[in-house]
Amino acid sequence: MIVVLLGPPGVGKGTQGELMARRFGIPRIVTGDMLREEVRESTSLGREASSYMSRGELVPDSLIIGMIEKRIVGDGVRKGFILDGFPRTVVQAEAFDRMLDKYGLVLSRVIFINVPDDDVIRRLSGRRICEKCGAVYHVVFDPPSVQGVCDKCGGNLLQRKDDREETILKRLKVYNEITAPLVAYYRDRNLLLEIDGSGSIEEVFNRIVKEIK
Ligand code: AP5
User: Fold this and answer.
1) N or C: which terminal CB in the chain sees fewer CB atoms within 10 Å?
2) In the prediction, which pLDDT does 75 show?
3) Nearest C-alpha neighbor of 189 from the set 87, 61, 54, 59
4) Helices 61-72 and 31-40 meet at what angle, rounded to 10?
5) With a cut of 50, which residues of the chain have pLDDT below it?
6) What per-residue confidence (pLDDT) applies to 94?
7) Phi and psi for 13 in degrees, rounded to 5?
8) What separation in Å is there between the alpha carbon of 14 and the centre of ligand 1?
9) pLDDT at position 39, please?
10) Does ligand 1 come within 6 angstroms of the Cβ of 31?
11) The pTM is what?
């Protein structure tokens, strides 16, 4: 099964992707995490991507497409994968179609999760991430047992730089102008599953599982 998760920043793609990966036994390919790793390791890709990311802008298509192609022919993806954060432009979606053809792969579904902008802002401004293991929390909706400390590994919980309000608004603008047209792109190809992202994490997950079945 090959699934794309589509939706505005902070709608819960990462949260739902992780639950789906566990339920369906397939890995997640998360472009945001891959890019943040490149930035941490200060690779040439990471150095180039860093300024776009901190401004809340998209990293150039040419960098992203090459990174994804390497990953989808790499290890551990034989049974399928969940793409979170790619494609994000029509150019990326067309390149992905060509990759699927080239490697004889079939895209099963595009899961489009949506909530109003106010919810996005609430979710992103309260998000905290473990600096050690990357686990994701929310100060109100999904808090750790001890404030500021990861339940899984005891690491410190930090706010992502691009989760400050002015950058969130920029990311939403970029999403609406550049990524949202992919909803029609995949609807026209009969691949789109529209999921209401409001309600608890569990409620959203149950909706996804019901639709996929
Ligand atoms: P990326 O890391 O992909 O950011 P994003 O799309 O903005 O998505 P997020 O990870 O912020 O949110 P999410 O939807 O995964 O939400 P989450 O589950 O964490 O990209 C970062 C940057 O990298 C981009 O700005 C760009 O520069 C670059 N980039 C990446 N891919 C690219 C590409 N293909 N092309 C070009 N550039 C690219 O949830 C958010 C919070 O809400 C959490 O705290 C969670 O606990 C909480 N939450 C989740 N579900 C619920 C719920 N149902 N109720 C209440 N709270 C909830």
Assistant:
1) C
2) 85
3) 87
4) 100
5) none
6) 98
7) -65, -45
8) 6
9) 95
10) yes
11) 0.96
Question: Which neighbouring-strand residues pair with 203?
Answer: none
Instruction: For residues 23 and 20, give the distance between their C-alpha atoms in angstroms, rounded to a whole number.
Output: 5
Residues 6+ apart with CB under 8 A from 153: 130, 132, 133, 135
> How far away, in angstroms, is 206 Cα from ligand 1 center?
20
The pLDDT of residue 213: 79
**What are 207's two structure tokens?**
């909706």
What are 153's two structure tokens? 């590994």
Burial class (CB in 10 A: 0-12, 13-18, 19+), 177: exposed
Residue nearest to atom 39 of ligand 1 (CA): 12
Find out whether 53 and 162 touch, Cβ atoms under 8 Å.
yes
The DSSP secondary-structure symbol of 196 reads E
The secondary structure of 57-126, three-state, reads: CCCCHHHHHHHHHHHHCCCCCCCCEEEECCCCCHHHHHHHHHHHHHHCCCCCEEEEEECCHHHHHHHHHC
For residues 193 and 205, give the distance between their C-alpha atoms in angstroms, rounded to a whole number. 13
* Residue 204 near ligand 1, beta carbon < 6 Å: yes
Cα-Cα end-to-end distance for the chain = 12
